[in-house]
Amino acid sequence: MTNTILVIMGSVRAQRHNPVLARWVAAIGQATTGVTFELVDLADWSLPMDDEPAIPATGGYVQPHTQAWSAKIADAAAFVFVTPQYNWGYPAALKNAIDHCYAEWRDKPLLIVTYGGHGGGKCAAQLVQVAEALKMRVVPTMPALTLARAMIEGSPIKAEIDFAEQRAEIEGACSTLVAMIGG
């Protein structure tokens, strides 16, 4: 296992703010802690729904894409999910990526950063439940970035300006995440 923290982008929509926000969170984490925060775009991973013959809890993966995803997740020290809130929940692509593995997530720290028109608290609450089922350790601080209507409708985001007030919260959450590694 490496000391790398994977910043997993929770959205694969063509028109999405996820890459901008995930890069911003990763840059803050790396600058604050000195630890490597690696971006993982789920759009770059072919993870078909339910194409393994056995359930993930058995770990007997036969599909090359699942084996590669398993290795990626197993090698990480911790995770940051940067995800939008869709209809009070989180995107199916993120759920599918989580559900492709089981033991690989166990005992690892997780920071949840959400965004949306209402910030993403309901999405974060659902992810906490899933993380608890996987025996992950969730950072108590879960930054929720509230997007203005214009942003939701496609206006560009300048995260370092638009969410400057929340930088300290993200710095603190990233520091807590790093402190949880190995503990």
Please describe what this structure looks like.
The structure is a single chain. The protein has a single domain, classed as Rossmann fold (3-Layer(aba) Sandwich), CATH 3.40.50. It has helices at 18-33, 64-75, 92-99, 121-133, 149-152, 159-162, 167-180; strands at 5-9, 37-41, 78-84, 109-116, 137-138, 144-146. With 183 residues, it is of the alpha/beta class. It is globular, with a radius of gyration of 16 Å. Helices cover 39% and strands 16% of the residues.
What does this entry show, briefly?
This protein is an alpha/beta fold and 183 residues long.
Descriptors for this entry?
single chain; 183 residues; alpha/beta; Rossmann fold; six-stranded parallel β-sheet; 6 strands; globular
Q: Helix and strand layout, with pairings?
A:
Elements: E1 5-9, H1 18-33, E2 37-41, H2 64-75, E3 78-84, H3 92-99, E4 109-116, H4 121-133, E5 137-138, E6 144-146, H5 149-152, H6 159-162, H7 167-180
Parallel strand pairs: 1-2, 1-3, 3-4, 4-5, 4-6
Helix pairs in contact: 1-7
Number of strands: 6
CATH topology: Rossmann fold
Low-confidence stretches: none
The structural domain count equals 1
